[in-house]
Each structure stands twice: as C-alpha cells, then as structure tokens.
C-alpha cells in the first residue's frame, strides 16, 4: 500500500488544510478556518500587560514552571507549595482536608488560607503570586457538607430554563467562595451521544443547540458578565468549560475513549457549547481524556492551539485533566513536554506534580520546551489571576464570602434548587390521570430510592463516586420521602415508608422510588441500556403492589435514560427524576395536590435525551438518521395531557445475561464472564459450579455461608497452600480504572488467621505475568468474625508487573495452612474499609 499523501487530499476535497503540519490520519485532520469564530469579550488591558511583563522579567524558569503545574491537595502540602512556588492546587473528587470526605467547611477554608499563605510567603525566595484552587463544584459546591446540591446537568437539561441555570451558577459560585476556592471545574458542555457513557448525566443534552443555550449563561452566572463591575469579583468564581473536545462522542460511549466522528461532527456537535462560553469570557477550558482519531487531546496541537486559541479566540488558559498528559504517546505522568508544546497551559498532575515539575524545568533549560511557549502559558495564567484581582486580595477567609457558611444550603439557595427539581421532572406516563395525588389519602412510599440521599445526589457528591455517604452528611437536604411525608401529614393524610413495600395497612396509592446507584466517570460505563435494578427487585415490587390492587406511581432516579419498558408497563404513572440532589421535596411539590385540591405545580420538564425503545438503542439521538426512540427528545406530559400509554414492547433487543459489570463475585457466585477456580497444594485446579467443593488433595475446602442473604458468601479453609481464583473468560481491560486509582474491593471475613501467616492477592496477565500483593497486614488488623472491605489498588498490580490492559485473573487469594477466610463480594470501586499499600 502506498503511503497516504495528505496534500493531495486537501486539493481533492478542496479543503483548506490550514497551518497544521500534523501527522494525523486523514480522517483526523483539522481545518481551523472552517471552525466558528466567537469574539473574546475582554479587551487587552495595557496596564495589566505591563505588570505581567515586569513580573515575568524577573521570574526564574523554576518559578514559571511552578505556575504551569497543578498538584492535588491529597499529595501536596502548603510547605511544598512554598518551596516549589506552585501556582495552583486542586481537590479531586476523592481529596478532602484531612482525608475525610465529610470534613467541615471551616477545614476547607483553613486549608485554602494555608495554601494561599504559602504562595505569598517569599521568605525562601521567589515572588508572591497568589495561588488558585480549583474544585469540582459540579452541581453546587458538591464536595462540601451542607452545600446546596442542584440536580445534575441531565436534569437541568430537562428544565429548558437558561435563566434558572444562571441563578444556579451564581449560587454555586457564592457557596464555593465561602470555603475559599476561586475556581470551579464546571460547566461540562459535553454533548453525550451514547447513553452508555458513565458521564452522560454530566451533560445537559444530546442536542448541541440545547447545550449551547446553557453554556454561555452558566459561565456568566459563575463569573459575572464580562465587562460588568462584578465580573470575577469575590462573589464569583472562574469557570472551566470541559472537556475539550469530543468527550461525549467516543466509540461505544467508552469513557476516555476514541472519538472517530468527522471533523464537521466534532465541530457542530461537540464544540457547540464552547462558542457561547468563549463569548462569555470563560477563563479556562479543560482538555479531555479522549482522543480524536487516535490522538489524545492532551497532545492535540491543531485543536488546542490552532482551533481553540487561534481560530476561536479563547483568551483564557487550558488546564489538563487528571494525569491526562501521561496518556499522550511518548509521555509519562511525570514527563511530558509534548502536552505543553501542543498548547496545554497548566497540566493537572495531582500526585505527580513534583516529577512533572522537575522534568519540565529540564525541558525548558535544554530547549525541548521553547521559552516562548512557557511564557505564553504563564502569561495566560497570570492574566486570569490579575483579572480576578487576586494580587490585591487578602487570604481566602478574609474575602467577601470567606467563612459565610450560613450561605451553604441557605433557605434561599435551597428554594432555587427545589424549583430546579420541580422543573426537571419528566412525566412519561399518567394512566387515567392518576397524578396528581390527593395528599389526604393513605400513601405508601417504597423502593430503595425513597429515603436515600446517596442515590438522589449521585456521583461527584462529597466523594468522587458519590458512594459511602450517610444521611447525616446532608444536614441541609430532604429525601423524596421527607418531602412526601411532610406534605401528606400536614394535609391530614397518612404516609408510610416501607422500602420493600411491606405495608402495615393497605394504602390508597403507592409511590415506588428506584433507580441507579451513584457512579462517576468510567465506573458508570455500561455495556447496554438494561436497567440492572438488582437487589431491590424493583420491577417485582411494582408488580406486587399492583397485584394487591394498589395504583403505583414509579419515580426513577438515574443519570440517563435506560430501557424500562417493563417497569413503565407495570406502573400506572412514571416519572423520570434524574439525579435531583438535595431537594427531594421538589418531587412532592409536583406529585401532590395542594390543600385546596388543585395541583401545586404542573410538570414542565421535557426530555433532553431521547428515551430508548430497546436496550441496544445506545446512540439514538434527535435529528440523526434512523431516529426511532420510545419517547422522543422534547417529550414530557403535563396534567393537561392525556397520559395513557398502550403497552410497550418488552423485548429488550439484547441478551441481558451477556453484559459485563464491575462486580466480579457476589452472593457466592462469579459474575457472567468470570469463573471461580480452586487450586490445591498439589497444583491441581478445579472450576467451581456448586456451593461447596474440596480440591482433590483435600488442601482447600469451600462451603456456602450465610451473609445478609442465605448462602450469600463462601468460606475457604486452607489446610495446605491453596489458591482461590476469579478468572476472566476474556482478558479484561482495566487500564482506565488503573489510571483512575480504582481499587479491587473484596468483602472478606477473617475466620482464622495464625500469627504471621502469609496471605496474598494475586492477579495475572498473559500466561506468565503475575503480580502479587500481600494483604496479610490488612487482614491481621481486621476483627475476626467481622466483615470488612479490603481495597487493593489496581495500581499496585500494575507496579507488580501485570499488564492492566489484558488481565486474565483479576483477583486471586493465596494462603496456607490454618487460614480460614470468607468472601461475600468482589467488585471494583473506591469505597473500602481497609486499604492495602503496594508494599504489603
Ligand atoms: C475528571 C474531571 C475533573 C478532574 C478533577 C477528572 O478525572 O475527568 O472532570 O474535573 O478529574 O477532579
Ligand atoms: C478523579 C478524581 C479522583 C481520583 C480518585 C480521578 O480520576 O477525576 O477527581 O479524586 O480519580 O483517585
């Protein structure tokens, strides 16, 4: 085959090939002149430019590099900020003051002061350059206990109310300022095209026009209006428009995957939100983890430099994503001149900042990274800091809103969030006008989402994945049940909560609240659109109540539309509630009539994502060929509509048993695609199909034990050296999870552990590579006879040599004589009781 000649193609297609002499495949080529040209609203300020010139003229290379590297508060101390003169820190989803996800607001603020003071302390040399702290204030200041938690973006998409979004952004900025941060990593303007993507809920809509209608006003709400007196003042924060570019367009909706759409689609669909955001003066844009036709965005010069900063006139700075630079070809997390050369201004190097700083200083000194590029990056960052007036500001706690914690979850703010909940609810079905309900009746509230803050707030809430939180972590919040109960009771009705539906007296009506458990990023990627209700048996619950002659209203909590035709058929009324956040009472406002018997609020939410007809309708988006959804984009009933639906097809279109999950072992059995195998001291292996088994040599015996469910676990008794393995039928690609610091979490119970007995966790790739991590210490510190979740960082397995892209045995336990262990569950995640360190 002849090598491809790009020049010829330019001529053949009569396209302007632009400036980029770029090694992209033809399909991945970018033509900047064909991209939109928003106007950057901020004129050059000569006084500021002079000030920056003067400052930069006396900054050392080391100081300049300090500005372009960002560390995470979990991995950098204020002392290190002082020493290395770093210009920015972030708090990742899993990073909190003192390592406690529920740290108090005052602890966040004190830490913000400490970093600021370190950046202004020149006793060790250098210039005083105020630090900026970025945080994922994604749906409110959602890392902080007590903050107002707005619906996630998918729910806001359904409101079709840009002015409400402006108000939400304004409140989010104010609450963020109370804890000292001046910069949020929001809004996400992804245009998710495949609902299997674990970040679908971070997007407002599958429709670029709807995303664009929000992006500019949201930026204005956060930052203030460009040119106005309050622009970027102490009541506002800098925005990050993310993730540039094509995050919502990856093949199969795979997080951090490859986007292989045409350049026109990349521009018209995925870049739609950047146009108004730039016109509103967004101060930063975050580079995306995804690639475009095989080339990672963190190294994509044509898009980052030629399009974004050149053609699109973006006058802020580009920030990287979590070690995203390390995924660029030829880079590591601690060494990547390429990303800066391609146009990155500040690399996010959470736990790798020191290495990246050191290698970058070297690259500048030996000319690999041109001084002009370094200067441009530093200038962009200093410009943003000066636009905020930060050089003149006192420490974060002494600024206008610093320490005003009464604003966190204040009644006024919560009222806006509650309005957003009401406006985000989409009514899919209302058979015979069951809704709105009289609050004067006997109302049963059931389902595991009814009184469940963790579920209704979703990912990016106090913890990265949104899991592991408790009700008391949400002092300023109502569950759906809280809202329903209080309105029913005050109207003289009777409300009963029974998660499993086992009512004490037969109700007049039941509201069943169910849905997805929280997730974030790739951990939420799905193989198909089946709803895996799992344990709670939601469909059965609805059917059982119906069989008892009780009308059922189903309320579905989720980060995306899923295939639910069976549930929709079974229920009389069906409401998509998305991820409503802290104001669950907004649901009661719409479902229940007021005291005067009239509806309090009608439904006004309209689908911003098309609802699938089958579980294999992954990418069925409005305006695209073959569009054939169950409920179209824009669908949403009101009380004036006839809400009856004919029975929907219950044919899912896929084989539900084939789908892959992140749970590898549960209730005593290996998940689909995995096999449980025992190997005895003599090396003889056997695959397990029954609840009990003993290896031929008798050295390893397995029996079923009860957990919270009958035979929910397996107990392994070692009377010689033995191995318990979970083998994957096809090699597993755990690369993304490993990059994201995910753990294998084994729910284990130590039943007998002789002092000093070795126990290890093993994983393998290929036939020969095996990585071993000792878990003896973690087990020794666990209480005998009690369940504990032991987390093994996937990273440790990679360090031990396992190829994480092709894992054959993701989990095995090896132990010797006298050890007795029980195992209930193995899954990947971040919520563990005990963490194993790579060393042992
Ligand atoms: C996510 C970003 C986020 C960053 C910091 C990344 O993994 O992709 O959206 O802002 O982490 O938490
Ligand atoms: C996330 C961070 C999170 C980290 C957890 C990253 O991928 O973006 O926000 O804190 O993983 O290890």
Automatic annotation (TrEMBL):
Residues 425-639 form the Glycoside hydrolase family 3 C-terminal domain. Residues 1-23 form the signal peptide. It comes from the Bacteria. One of its GO terms (molecular function) is beta-glucosidase activity. The keyword Cell membrane does not apply. GO terms for biological process: glucan catabolic process. Keywords: Hydrolase, Signal. Residues 61-382 form the Glycoside hydrolase family 3 N-terminal domain. Residues 683-828 form the ExoP galactose-binding-like domain. Pfam families: Exop_C (PF18559), Glyco_hydro_3 (PF00933), Glyco_hydro_3_C (PF01915). This is 1,4-beta-D-glucan glucohydrolase. It comes from Stenotrophomonas chelatiphaga. The lineage of its organism: Bacteria, Pseudomonadati, Pseudomonadota, Gammaproteobacteria, Lysobacterales.
């Amino acid at each position: 085959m002849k090598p491809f000649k790009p020049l010829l193609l330019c001529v053949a297609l009569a396209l302007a090939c632009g400036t980029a002499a770029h090694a992209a495949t033809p399909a991945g080529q970018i033509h900047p002149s064909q991209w939109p040209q928003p106007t950057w609203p901020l004129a050059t300020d000569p006084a500021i430019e002079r000030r920056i010139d003067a400052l930069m003229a006396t900054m050392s290379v080391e100081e300049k590099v300090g500005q372009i590297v960002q560390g995470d508060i979990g991995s950098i101390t204020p002392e290190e900020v002082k020493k290395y003169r770093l210009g920015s820190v972030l708090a990742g989803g899993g990073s909190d003051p003192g390592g406690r996800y529920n740290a108090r607001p005052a602890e966040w603020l004190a830490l913000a002061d400490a970093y600021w003071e370190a950046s202004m302390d020149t006793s060790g040399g250098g210039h005083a350059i105020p630090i900026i702290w970025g945080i994922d204030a994604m749906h409110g200041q959602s890392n902080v206990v007590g903050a107002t938690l707005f619906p996630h973006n998918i729910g806001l998409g359904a409101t079709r109310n840009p002015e409400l979004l402006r108000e939400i952004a304004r409140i989010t900025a104010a609450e963020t300022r109370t804890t000292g941060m001046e910069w949020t990593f929001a809004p996400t303007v992804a245009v998710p095209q495949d609902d299997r993507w674990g970040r679908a809920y971070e997007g407002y809509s599958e429709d670029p026009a709807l995303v664009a209608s929000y992006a500019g006003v949201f930026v204005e709400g956060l930052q203030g209006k460009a040119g106005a007196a309050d622009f970027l003042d102490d009541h506002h924060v800098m925005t990050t428009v993310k993730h540039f570019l094509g995050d919502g367009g990856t093949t199969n909706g795979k997080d951090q995957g490859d986007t292989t759409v045409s350049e026109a689609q990349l521009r018209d669909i995925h870049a739609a939100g950047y146009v108004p955001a730039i016109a509103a003066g967004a101060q930063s844009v975050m580079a995306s983890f995804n690639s475009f036709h095989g080339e990672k965005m963190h190294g994509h010069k044509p898009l980052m430099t030629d399009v974004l900063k050149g053609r699109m006139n973006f006058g802020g700075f580009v920030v990287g994503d979590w070690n995203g630079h390390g995924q660029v070809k030829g880079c590591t997390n601690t060494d990547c001149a390429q990303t800066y050369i391609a146009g990155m201004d500040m690399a996010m190097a959470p736990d790798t900042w020191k290495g990246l700083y050191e290698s970058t200083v070297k690259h500048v000194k030996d000319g690999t990274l041109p001084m002009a590029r370094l200067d441009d990056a530093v200038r962009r960052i200093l410009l943003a800091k000066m636009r905020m007036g930060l050089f003149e500001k006192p420490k974060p706690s002494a600024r206008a809103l610093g320490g005003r914690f009464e604003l966190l979850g204040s009644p006024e703010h919560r009222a806006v969030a509650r309005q957003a909940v009401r406006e985000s609810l989409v009514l899919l079905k209302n058979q015979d006008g069951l809704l709105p309900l009289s609050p004067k009746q006997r109302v049963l509230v059931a389902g595991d989402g009814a009184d469940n803050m963790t579920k209704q707030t979703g990912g990016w809430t106090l913890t990265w994945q949104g899991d592991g939180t408790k009700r008391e972590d949400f002092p300023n919040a109502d569950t759906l049940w809280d809202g329903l109960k209080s309105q029913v009771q005050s109207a003289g009705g009777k409300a009963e909560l029974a998660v499993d539906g086992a009512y004490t007296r037969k109700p007049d009506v039941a509201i069943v609240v169910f849905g997805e458990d929280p997730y974030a990023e790739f951990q939420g990627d799905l193989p198909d659109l089946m709803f895996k209700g799992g344990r709670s048996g939601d469909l059965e619950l609805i059917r059982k109540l119906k069989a008892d002659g009780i009308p059922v209203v189903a309320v579905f909590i989720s980060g995306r539309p899923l295939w639910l035709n069976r549930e929709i058929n079974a229920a009389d009324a069906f409401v998509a509630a998305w991820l409503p956040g802290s104001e669950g009472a907004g649901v009661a406002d719409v479902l229940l009539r007021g005291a005067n018997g009239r509806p309090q609020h009608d439904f006004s939410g309209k689908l911003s994502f098309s609802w699938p007809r089958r579980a294999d309708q992954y990418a069925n988006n409005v305006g695209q060929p073959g569009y054939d959804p169950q409920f179209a984009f824009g669908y949403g009933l009101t009380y004036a509509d006839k809400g009856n639906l004919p029975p929907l097809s219950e044919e899912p279109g896929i084989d539900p048993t084939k789908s892959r999950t992140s749970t590898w072992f549960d209730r005593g059995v290996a998940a689909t695609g995995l096999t449980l195998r025992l190997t005895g001291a003599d090396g003889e292996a056997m695959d397990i199909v029954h609840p009990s088994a003993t290896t031929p040599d008798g050295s390893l015996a397995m029996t079923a034990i009860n957990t919270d469910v009958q035979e929910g676990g397996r107990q392994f008794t070692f009377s010689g050296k033995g191995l318990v393995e979970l083998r994957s039928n096809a090699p597993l690609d755990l690369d993304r999870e490993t990059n994201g610091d995910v753990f294998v979490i084994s729910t284990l119970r130590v039943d007998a552990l002789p002092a000093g007995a070795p126990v290890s966790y093993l994983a393998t790739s290929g036939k020969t590579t095996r990585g071993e991590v000792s878990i003896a210490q973690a087990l020794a510190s666990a209480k005998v006879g009690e369940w504990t979740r032991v987390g093994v960082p996937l990273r440790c397995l990679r360090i031990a040599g396992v190829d994480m892209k092709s894992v054959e045995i993701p989990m095995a336990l090896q132990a010797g004589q006298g050890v007795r262990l029980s195992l209930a569950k193995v899954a990947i995640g971040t919520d563990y009781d005990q963490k194993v360190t790579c060393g042992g």
